[in-house]
Amino acid sequence: MNRFRLSPLLRWTLVLLAMFALVSPAAAELREYGLWWTPEAATKGAHHVDNLFVFIFWLTAIVFVATQAVYVWFLIKYRRKRGVPAHYSHGNNTLEIWWTIIPAAIFIGLVIWSNRIWYRELRAPAPADSIQIDLVSYQYGWHVRNPGSDGKLGAYKAQLTAKENWFGTEPDDEAGRDDYQSEGIVTVPVGRPVHILLRSLDVIHAFYVPEFRMYQDAIPGRMIDWVWFEATKIGNYELACSQLCGSGHYNMKAKMNVVSQEEYDKFVREKSKAAAIEFEKKKAAQAAPPAVAPAATAETVSPPAAPAVAAR
Amino acid sequence: MAAVAEPRPLESGVAPVALDPHVHAHHEQGIFRTYIWSHDHKMIAKQYLLTALFFLIVGGLLAMGVRYKIAFPNVPIYGLNWLLPSYMVSEEGVILPQMYNMLFTMHATVMVFFVVMPLLIGVFGNYLIPLQIGAPDMAFPFFNALSYWLYALSGVMILCSFFVDGGAAAGGWTSYAPLSNNAAYNLTQKGQSLWCLGIFVNGLSSLSGAMNYITTVINMRAPGMRMFRMPLTVWALFITALLLLLAVPVLGAAASMLYLDLNFGTHFFQASGGGDPLLWQHLFWFFGHPEVYIMILPAMGISSEILPVFARKPVFGYRAMVWAMAGIAILGFIVWGHHMFVSGMNITLSAVFSVSTMIIAVPSAIKTFNWMGTVWRGSVRFTTPMLFALGFVSMFVIGGLSGIFMASTPVDLFVHHTYFIVAHIHYVLFGGSILNIYAAIYYWFPKMFGRMMNETWGRIHFWITLIFMNLTFFPMHNVGLGGMMRRIADPTQYEHLRALQPINIFITLSAFVLGASTLIFFVNFFYSMFKGPKAPPNPWEANTLEWTLPSPVTLHGNFEKTPTVYHGPYEYSVPGMDKDFLPQDEPLKPEVKLGGH
Amino acid sequence: MDAHATALIGPGLNPVQPNRMVRFGMFTFLASEAMLFAGLIGGYIVLRLSNPNYIPAGVHLPVLQTLAATAVLVGSSFTCIWGERQARAHKRPTWALFITIVMGSLFLLNQVFEWSHLYHEGIWFNTYGTFASSFFTLTGFHGLHVFIGVLLLIAAWMLSLAGKFDGNNHNFLDCASLYWHFVDIVWIVVFAIIYLW
Ligand code: HEA
Ligand code: HEA
Ligand code: CUA
Ligand SMILES: [Cu+2]
C-alpha cells in the first residue's frame, strides 16, 4: 500500500485551504467580541451559562484531543507491517467497566450542576420588584407593552387576545391607562430585573437574545411567564425570533434597548402621558366595546367557547 | 439466473422460502419479475441503492441551494426566474425566503427519509441480513418488494410536492404546528399535505421492512448462528428494526392528525380551537429522537464490521457492543424532550429529560472506546472502506461531544436553534451516517456487483470529503455561538450577524467542494459497476457468511447448501492458524483454540 | 451433523415452521399497530387533560347503544376463537366465521349510524373543538381497522367454504383472528376513554 500516493492531492488541498483561509478573516469586519466565540454576556445570570459552557468546552476539548491523539497514534503504530501479526484478543472486561463508569460519573456530575443552575438561577421565579414587560409575537413582528408610571400592566385576559386587541386588555382597566404600547422596540432599564410575559397570536415564535443567553418559545394559547433577566450592560441589542414561523421568519426582529435607569424613567414619564391621552380617547370612542372573537384562524368554523389554556 | 434445486428440508433449520411459490420457480424469470417486482432481497437492495443515490443528489442539490442563499442572499441566479413560479423566486431570480424555507425543509426530509434511512436500512438491511445469517431470503419477500415500492411511491409524492400550487412544505422537517397545520400560516396547503402523505407512506414502507428484518433474524438463522454469533451489522439492523417498529407508527399517527387539521378542519394542534401545539412536538420527537438513532445504529454496525476486518483483529468487546446498542435503543425512547427544553414545556420535565440525555451518551462512549480498542495492536490496512470507517469514529466523536453541550439545559438555552445545532446534526448525520454509507458501499460493492471499485479514487474521495466536511460543518459551531439562528434565509438582516457573513461564505464555498467531491464517488461507482476489475469471492478476507459465496451472489436462494456456523464472526489472527481469518462456516481444527468471550 | 460439530455449534436452532413464522410476523405487525393507536390515544388523553370542559355541552354520546355494540364486538372475538378451534379440530369453521362477520358488520353499522346521527346534530371533524377531532379520528381509524378485519374474515370464510382449511393448514385464519382480537382490544380501550371517562 503506497501511503505517499496522496501527496499531490494533499498539496492541492492545502493550496485551496490557504485560499479559503485568506478570503474570510481578511474580509471580516471584526465585531467587538470577535468572530469565533460567543458575544459578550449582558445579563446577570448569563455567567452561569457561560461557566457551564466553558467547562463543557474544555471537557469535550480534552476528551476529543485525548481520544483522537490515542487513536491516531494507534493507527500509525499498528499499521500493517510485514511479519507482525495482529494481537488476538476479544477485549477486556476491566477496561469495559472503567470506561463505562468514568463517563457516567462525569455525565452525572455535569447534569447535577446543570440542573442546579437551571432551577435555582435561570428558572427561579422572577423577583417581586421586577418590571413586567408584555411581548406579543405575531407573523411577523412583536407588540411590546411597557408599564407606565404606575409600574403596573393592565390586566390581561386570554379570551380577549386577538388580532385587534393583541394584549387582551380590558378597555376600561385603570391599570392599563398609562401603559405604553409599541411595535418592535423593547426598552428596559439596566440593573433591574425585567420579567417578560410571552405570548403569540398565531404560530410559535421565539424570544432570543444571544447576549442575554436566553431563548424561549412563545406558544399560541398560553402565556409563558418564567422568563426574566437583569441586564448588566447598557446597549442596543437585537431580539430575534428564532423559531421558524413562516415566510417572514428571517426578518422577524425587534430592538432590545437597555438604557440607564434615568433614561428609562424619562422614557416612561413621556410615554405614559401620551398613552393616557390615547387611552381616554379610545375609551370614549368605544363606549360599548363589541365582544371580541377568539383569534381568527383560516378555518371558517369557530368552536363553542374556545377554551384558553391559561399559563401554567 | 440459476434456480434452487429443491425446497430445503425443514431439518436444515431454515424455513423454506417457498412462502411465495413464485420465488422458487424453476424457470428463468422475466424482466419484470427480475428487475422490477423482484422478490429477491438482493435485487430489492439494489433497487433501494440506486433510488436512494438519486435522492442523495436531490437532497444535496437542495443543500447547495440552502448554502447559496445564506452566503449570497441577494445575488440572483439567472434563469431561475423563468424556471420557477413567482412565489419561489423574485423577478430577478433571487431565491425568496419562502423558497428558502422549502429548500431546507425538503433537504432534511429527503436526506433523512429518502437517503439515509433507505441506504442504511433498505440497502444494507436487505442485502446483509439474509446473507450474514445464512438464510435464503427474507421472511416475507412479498412485503419486502412492497416496502421498496412504497418507498418509491412516497419519493414521487415528495418530489411532486415542489410542483403543486404553493410549492413544497416549508415548515422545517419538524413541521411544528400551528405553522404546519394551517394553510393561512404556511402558505402551502397542498405541499404540506403531500408532505404528510409522503411521510405516512414512507412509514408504511419502513414498517414492512422492519417486520421482515425482525422475523428473519429471529426465525431464519442458519444452524449454529446463535444470537451472540451474529455479525454486529445484523445486531444493529435488528435493533434498528425494533426502533422502527415502535417509533414510526407514532409519526404516522401524528402525520394523520396534521393532515386532518390541514384538510378537514380538526383542531388537534390549533390553539384557537382548544388544541395543543406542544402535542405535535411531543409526538414528533417521540418518533424523532429514536429516529436519529435509527440513522446511526446501522452505521455503527457497519463500522463495527469493517474495523475488525481491516485491523485483522477481533472486535473489541463484542458483547459490550451489543449491550450498548440495546441500551441506546431503550434509552432512546425516553430522551425526546431534549428537543423541547425551551419549547414552553414544563420546566421540571426539562430537567428530567436532561438527565436521561446525559445517560444515553454513556453507551456511545462505550462504543467509541471499543472501536479504539479494536485498532489497538491490530495490523491496520488503510483501504477505502477502512478510511471511511475510521473517519466515522472521529467525526461521530465531534458530533457526539457537541450533543453534550445541548444536553445541559442552561447551555441549550443559549445554543438552541442556532447553527451550533446545525453543526451537531451534520457531524452525526454526515460524519456518522453518510461516511459509513460510503464505507459500506466501498466494502460490499464487490459482493453486490462482482467488481471492485477503484481504490485510488476512493481514497481521493475520502480525503476530500473528510477535509471539506470539516471545513463546511465545523465553522457552523462558531457562527452558532456567535448567535446565528438556524432557518433564516438572510442573516445579513441582523446587525449582529453581518460580521459573521464572511464565515458563511467560507462555509458555502467548502460546501460546494464537498458536493463536488460526491461526483468523484458517483463516477467511480458507475464506472466500476461496468468496468471495474472482477472481484474474487472474498477480496477482503473476511469471516462473515456472505464472503463464502461467489461475487456477485446470483443464486436466488443465496446458499447452495445451508451453512453451519461454528463460531463468532470476528475470529481474525487466531494464533496457530495458517491464515489470519476464519470464516464462520469453517470448522476449527482441533489443535487451534479460540479466545474467551 | 457429526457429533463434533454438534458439540461445537451447540444444539442449533429448532426448525421453524413457516406457519409459526408468519404468526411471528403478525405479532410484529400488531406491535406497530399498537403504537399507532398509542399515538392517537395519547393525543386524546393529552388534549383532554389540558382542558376542563373537554366534551362540549351540546354533545351527548349514545353510551348504552355503544355499550351494546361493544358487547357484540367482544362477543365476535369469542366466535372467532370458536372458529379457530374448529379448524384445529379438522372441522370447517364456516358457521363460526359467518357469525363473526355478521357481528363485526353489526358493529360497523352501529358506528355508521352513530356518525350520521352526530353529523345531523352538527357535530363533525371540524366543529366542537378537539373533542370532535379526536372522537372522529380515533373511531374512524378504529372503524377502518374493523372494516379491514371484516374483509379478512370474509376471505377466510370463503377459503373455508372452498374447503381450503384443514387441521394443519389454517394459517390465514390464525392471522385474521389475531388481527381481529387486536382490533377488539383496541376498541375496549377506545370505548373506555371516550365513552366512560
Ligand atoms: C445520527 C443522529 C444523531 C445522534 C447519534 C445524536 C446524538 C446525540 N444528540 Fe443529537 N440531534 C440530531 C441527531 C443526532 N444526535 C438531530 C438531527 C438533531 C436536531 C433536530 C432538529 O431540531 O432539527 C439533534 C438535536 C439534539 C438536541 C436538541 C438541541 C436543540 O434543538 O436545542 C440535543 C439536546 O440534548 C441532542 C443531544 C444529543 C446527545 C447527547 C447525543 C449523544 O447520543 C451523543 C453521544 C456521543 C458522545 C458523547 C461521543 C463519544 C463519547 C466519548 C468520546 C466518551 C467521553 C465523553 C465525555 C466524557 C464527554 N441532539
Ligand atoms: C442525513 C442527513 C443530512 C445530510 C447528509 C445533510 C447534508 C448537508 N446539509 Fe443538511 N440538514 C439536515 C440533514 C442532513 N444534511 C437536517 C435534518 C437539517 C435540519 C433542517 C431543518 O431545519 O428543518 C439540515 C439543515 C441544513 C442546513 C441549515 C438550514 C437552516 O437551518 O437554515 C444547512 C446549511 O448549511 C445544511 C447544509 C448541508 C450540506 C451543505 C450538506 C452536504 O453534506 C451535502 C453534500 C452532498 C451533495 C451536494 C450531494 C451530491 C451532489 C452532486 C453529485 C451534485 C454536485 C453538486 C454541486 C457542487 C452543485 N443542512
Ligand atoms: Cu417568528 Cu420566526
Ligand atoms: Cu434527540
Q: Any descriptors?
A:
heterotrimer, B: 597 residues, 17 helices, C: 197 residues, mainly alpha, Four Helix Bundle (Hemerythrin (Met), subunit A), 6 helices, elongated, binds heme-A, binds copper (II) ion
Quick structural overview:
The complex is a heterotrimer of chains A (312), B (597) and C (197). Chain A has 312 residues and is an alpha+beta fold.
Task: Break the fold down into its secondary structure elements and pairings.
The complex is a heterotrimer of chains A (312), B (597) and C (197).
Chain A: H1 7-27, H2 46-77, H3 93-122, E1 131-138, E2 141-146, E3 180-183, E4 185-189, E5 193-200, E6 205-209, E7 214-218, E8 224-230, E9 235-240, E10 253-259, H4 261-285
Parallel strand pairs in A: 1-5, 4-10
Antiparallel strand pairs in A: 1-2, 2-3, 5-8, 6-7, 9-10
Helix pairs in contact in A: 2-3
Chain B: H1 31-36, H2 41-71, H3 80-83, H4 97-133, H5 141-160, H6 183-186, H7 189-219, H8 232-264, H9 277-311, H10 318-331, H11 347-375, H12 384-407, H13 409-415, H14 419-449, H15 455-481, H16 495-498, H17 501-531
Chain C: H1 3-9, H2 18-49, H3 63-88, H4 94-120, H5 129-161, H6 171-196
Helix pairs in contact in C: 2-5, 2-6, 3-4, 3-6, 4-5, 5-6
Dinuclear copper ion binds next to loops of chain A.
Report on this model:
The complex is a heterotrimer of chains A (312), B (597) and C (197). Chain A is α+β, with helices and mostly antiparallel strands. Chain A is 35% helix and 20% strand. Chain A has a five-stranded mixed sheet. In chain A, strands 4-10-9 form a three-stranded mixed sheet, with helices on one face. Chain B has a single domain (42-548), classed as Up-down Bundle (Cytochrome C Oxidase, Chain A). The two termini of chain B are 41 Å apart. Chain C is built from six helices and no strands. The termini of chain C are far apart. In chain C, α3 packs antiparallel against α4, α3 packs antiparallel against α6 and α4 (94-120) packs antiparallel against α5. The chains are: A alpha+beta (312), B mainly alpha (597), C mainly alpha (197). Chains in contact: A-B, A-C, B-C. At the A-B interface, α1, α2, α3, β7 and β9 of A face α4, α6, α9, α11 and α12 of B. Bound molecules: heme-A (2 copies), dinuclear copper ion and copper (II) ion (CU). Copper (II) ion (CU) is lined by residues 289, 292, 338-339 of chain B. One heme-A sits between chains B (174, 292, 295-296, 338-339, 357, 360-361, 364-365, 368, 397, 400-401, 403-404, 406-407, 412, 416, 421, 424-425, 428-429, 432-433) and A (59-60, 63, 67, 103, 106).
